[in-house]
Amino acid sequence: MNVESKEWLERNLQSNKSVQIILTYAQSIDGCIAGRDKQQLLLSGKQSMEMTHALRSISDAIVVGIGTVLNEDPGLNARIPTLAPLNDQPTPIIIDPHLRTPLTAKVISNYTKGVGKAPIVLTSVERCNEDKRQALEGAGVRVEQILQGDGQWRREYFTHLSHVYSFKRVMIEGGATVIKGLLSSDGVVDELVVTVSPVLIGSAGLSIISDKVPSLRHKDSRVFGKDVVFIASTQ
Ligand SMILES: NC(=O)C1=CN([C@@H]2O[C@H](COP(=O)(O)OP(=O)(O)OC[C@H]3O[C@@H](n4cnc5c(N)ncnc54)[C@H](OP(=O)(O)O)[C@@H]3O)[C@@H](O)[C@H]2O)C=CC1
Ligand SMILES: Nc1nc(O)c(N)c(N[C@@H]2O[C@H](COP(=O)(O)O)[C@@H](O)[C@H]2O)n1
To answer: 47 C-alpha vs ligand 2 centroid, how far in Å?
Structure first.
C-alpha cells in the first residue's frame, strides 16, 4: 500500500516550481479537524494514515503551527507502516513566532534518538527570547527569525527555506489557524491533499471553514479504506 500510495502521490504532485507547497490535513464530512476544545481526533483510517506517512516520506519538510505542538506533541516523522530511513524523513518545521516550543517536544527527542531530522523553528523577526533561542539551538534546533509580525502568510518564507536548506517539497499539516490562514492567502499553497473521513463532528468541533478560499482544480481522488483522499491544485 505504501508503494502504491507513493506512486499515486508522485504522479499527481508533479511540479516544476522551485519549491512546492502542499497543504494536507484530515477532516470530517462537516469540515472539522478536531473535536470540542481542540481535542485530537483520529479521523484517518489505517490506509489513509499510511498515505499521509507516504507523503511525509516524499516531502523534504513538514510544517505545523505551535498550537499543534503544544496541543498534541506530534512526532512528525514518517513511520507507518515502518520507520523510514533518516534520509527519507522530512525536516520538521514549527511556526512559532513567540518561541514557545518546549525543549521536551517529541520532534526534538526524535532527532536526539536518530528517528527524525533536526527540527527548524520559524520565529518572529521582531522579538526573540535569546535564552530560549540558545537553549533550543543547544538541543540541535535551527532557529530562523523570518516571520513578519502581522500573522500573514508569505511564499517568501518557503523560498527562503528552499534556498538555505534545498527543500523542493514542503507539506503543511496544520493546525486550524495555519490551515485557515493559508487557505485565505493568495499564491502560497500549490496543492491540497485532503483526507475526508465519513464522520460528522457537529458545531462544537474545530472547523477549518474560512471566509476567503481559493478556487481549486481537481487532480485526482481515491478511496483509502473508509476514507476518500482528494488531490487538488490551487491554479
Ligand atoms: N486533523 C488534522 O489533520 C490536524 C488537526 N490538527 C488540530 O489542530 C488543532 C491546533 O490548531 P491551532 O490551535 O489553531 O494551532 P496551529 O497549529 O494552527 O498553530 C497556531 C499558532 O501558530 C502561529 N501562527 C499561525 N499562523 C501564523 C503566521 N502566519 N505567522 C506567524 N505565526 C503564525 C501562532 O502562534 P502564536 O499564538 O504564538 O502567535 C498561532 O497561534 C489541534 O486541535 C489539532 O488536533 C492539527 C494538525 C492536523
Ligand atoms: N492525517 C491525519 N489524520 C488524522 O486523523 C490526524 N489526527 C492527523 N493529525 C496530524 O498528525 C499529527 C500527529 O503526528 P504524529 O503521529 O505524532 O507524527 C498531529 O499533530 C496532526 O498534525 N493527521
So the answer is: 14
